[in-house]
Amino acid sequence: MRSGTCPKCQSNEVYHNAAQGGLGAGVKAGDGSPLLSIHTDKGGIFGSNFEMLYFENYVCQSCGYAEHYIHDLEKLEKLPASVNWKKVSA
User: Fold this and answer.
1) Which 3 state secondary structure label does DSSP give 77?
2) Are 55 and 39 contacting, i.e. CB atoms less than 8 angstroms apart?
3) What is the rounded CA–CA span in Å between residue 1 and residue 55?
4) What is the pLDDT of residues 14-42, one digit of tens each?
5) Sequence-separated (6 or more) residues with CB below 8 Å from residue 79
6) Closest to 60 in 3D by CA, of 19, 3, 11
7) The predicted structure's pLDDT at residue 47
8) pLDDT tens per residue across span 50-66
9) What pLDDT shows up at residue 5?
């Protein structure tokens, strides 16, 4: 989708809403909490080890397919130590 072509329907009607320091991402859970956060202690958002990750969002106007990419890839280094994300076993 980043190339401007939808991988599902091959349309060029792809739109992008890049996160800029969190502004414009607009992806929140029903309770208003960020959809993707990493907690490396049990304090959650009130703990000292909390990261909020911002999305780059892409959506195809033709078929509705959407993709989301993390804006700050270096923050993903904390995933193995997180208490709220678990690695999927192959």
Assistant:
1) helix
2) no
3) 14
4) 998 755 544 444 556 666 555 677 777 66
5) 38, 85, 87
6) 11
7) 57
8) 777 777 889 999 999 99
9) 97
CB 6 within 8 A of CB 63: yes
76: burial class by Cβ within 10 Å (0-12, 13-18, 19+)?
A: middle
Q: What is the pTM of this model?
A: 0.62
Rounded CA Rg of the chain: 15
Six token digits for residue 83: 């208490």
What are the structure tokens assigned to 66, written together? Answer: 């959407």
Distance CA 42, CA 56 (A): 27
SS3 content of the chain, % helix, strand, coil (to 5): 15, 30, 60
| Cα–Cα distance for residue pair 36/74, rounded to 1 Å | 14
Of 71 and 89, the one with more pLDDT: 89
